């Protein structure tokens, strides 16, 4: 698909929470979601005494909102081990944002050596020594001055992307963020000081979570970004929850037909392929509404001989309504639908 439709893999759906100055950069959000299973029939996924579950580790491309790499494993497997596979092909200059469950300083040191910038949250038991305050350099050249406000709206071209409305009707309001400190630290743990001997950057900020201001601590290896940019990058990682919701709730990835590990993986791959096809249909037909609405529409007419572009054109409320849906073959055998010869 990349040689034929390169635009689909780069700009098919711009996540509005992505900071404007990073919209031309390759950013991956690494996170996982738990898929509940039945412990009685799926002993391979048992991770507690009477519970079984699988984990879908995902590296999501925040520019296109498409999964770049997915791993399906048992929930008892360690998250840091999966991070090595999810970031194995990352190149210099790219950005990855982790959840703190993926913190492995040996892996982070490897990414830093390869020239990859990373942002994650610091664990509560992390041992470190403060080396001094971080002095932010000059302003980032990739950020226009007119977009330097705390709350910014999607640019005009993103109004043609699925799930987003024109700025006059719907505006994306960024989460509040207040930087408290920006320090240079060095790890002092027995093993961590050997795994990551270089200095790190520790940013403490108050971040809005569900309407409340919560103090969070972030660590990164990049010394050029402003502390506000570090907070915004981690905030955009929360967009991966939207992807998990579309996979598990909209595509209804809950009931499994098989019991073994291979059967569960095949069903997850099928759901991901269906998601990719639906996203391509939305991009190719310039669908601007929600993903769940497109899924409901196509599921209703799945076993009928209709022209897909005419179905989308008729049901898109932003266009002028047309009561004729083109059928294939010559007639559409549905009430109130007029066939076109």
Q: Would you mind describing this structure in some detail?
A:
The chain has one domain (6-250): Transposase Inhibitor Protein From Tn5, Chain A, domain 1 (Alpha-Beta Complex), CATH 3.90.350. A nine-stranded mixed sheet has the order 3-2-1-4-5-9-8-7-6, with helices on both faces. 27% of the residues are buried. The model is unreliable at 137-159, 163-169 and 327-341 (pLDDT under 50). The radius of gyration is 23 Å and the shape is globular. It has helices at residues 6-11, 79-86, 105-113, 192-195, 227-237, 240-250, 261-284, 291-300, 308-315; strands spanning 27-37, 52-61, 66-74, 95-98, 117-121, 128-133, 177-187, 200-209, 212-220. 27% of the residues lie in helices and 22% in strands. The protein has 341 residues and is an alpha+beta fold.
Tally of distinct domains: 1
Strand content: 15-25%
Total strand count, please?
Answer: 9
Number of helices: 9
Give me the oligomer status. single chain
- What's the overall geometry? globular
Strand arrangement in the largest pleated sheet = 3-2-1-4-5-9-8-7-6
Q: What would you report as the Rg, rounded to the nearest angstrom?
A: 23 Å
Largest sheet: 9 strands, mixed
Provide the helix percentage: 25-40%
Distance between the termini: 33 Å
What CATH architecture label applies? Alpha-Beta Complex
Structural class assignment: alpha+beta
> What is the residue-mean pLDDT, rounded to a whole number?
78
SSE series: HEEEHEHEEEHEEHHHHH
